[in-house]
Amino acid sequence: MNVADAVSLLGFLFGGGQAAACPDSGAAKDDASLNIAEAIHILTFLLVGEELSPPSPECGPDLTAGELAECNYPQEGC
């Protein structure tokens, strides 16, 4: 996870950018939505060290049910 993740999410939300292949990966607050608060949470993690919802910052399955599409791709390196 890096600044590009927050920038990409903001581009999708406000600039007509392309949605992520895995929408659930952008839900840093794990609240089943994608909004500006997610990008702020990512930046706070990077700049201040605030905790992210599991499994972040590691890779792995999302342990909470949500309305966002789940990711279906190989989780290499886990």
Question: Can you give a write-up of this model?
Answer:
It is a single chain. The chain has 78 residues and is an all-alpha fold. It has helices spanning 3-14, 36-48. The longest helix is centred in the middle third of the chain and has 13 residues, at 36-48. It contains 2 helices and no strands. The protein has one domain.
Task: Briefly summarize what is shown.
By secondary structure, this protein is mostly helical. It has helices at residues 3-14, 36-48. The protein has one domain (1-78).
Binned, the helix content reads 25-40%
Strand content: under 5%
**What is the overall silhouette?**
globular
Mean pLDDT across residues:
79
Helix and strand succession? HH
Separation of the first and last Cα atoms: 15 Å
Can you summarize the main beta sheet? Answer: none
Sheet/helix structural class: mainly alpha
Count of alpha/pi helices: 2
Q: List the uncertain runs.
A: none
Count of beta strands = 0
Computed over alpha carbons, the radius of gyration is 12 Å
How many domains, in number, for the residues? 1
